[in-house]
Design goal:
Blueprint (H helix, E strand, L loop, with lengths): L15 H20 L6 H13 L2 E2 H8 L3 H13 L3 E5 L6 E5 L1 H25 L1 H15 L4
Antiparallel strand pairs: 1-3, 2-3
């Protein structure tokens, strides 16, 4: 299996936020490269998988699920909607709309899934099971600092 390409590591900042943002940019870039042939970015793939997994849900419910503010989510959904990967359907009342994955969106997820699995596998091999478990625990702890 192809290994994860690593670049020279910069000295860490004294600021945890800066270090975390640098790591987020690097991991996003890695997944985007791995998913490139599917035509999806990791953010798009993640949204589609969540919509597929949970089923049609309101924009507010989806924003809560993926921890994005509604404005950012609406912008991301617009590009998926323009590509025909999701559609917005009327909600329970006239004020709400529900996000639903389309058949084309399901096919896009199906195409991207093996690429995502390969990325996951490469990272597991790169870090090892113990480090991956520690990393996941620390990330969940970081995520819990805000409501």
């Amino acid at each position: 299996m192809k290994s994860v390409h690593t670049r020279k590591i910069k000295p860490p900042s004294k600021c945890l936020c800066i270090n975390t943002r640098r790591a987020c940019r690097a991991i996003t870039e890695f997944y985007d490269q791995m998913l490139a042939s599917s035509g999806l970015k990791i953010t798009q793939y993640s949204l589609l998988r969540n919509i597929q997994r949970i089923g049609p849900l309101s924009i507010t419910e989806l924003a809560d699920e993926v921890r994005l503010d509604r404005t950012t989510l609406a912008r991301n959904l617009k590009s998926l909607e323009l590509r025909g990967l999701v559609k917005l359907v009327p909600g329970e009342d006239l004020r709400t709309r529900r996000v639903q994955i389309t058949k084309k969106g399901q096919e896009a997820v199906k195409t991207a899934f093996p690429l995502w699995e390969k990325a996951q596998s490469m990272l597991m091999e790169h870090f090892g099971e113990e480090e991956m478990s520690i990393l996941t625990t620390l990330l969940l702890k970081l995520e819990s600092i805000t409501n």
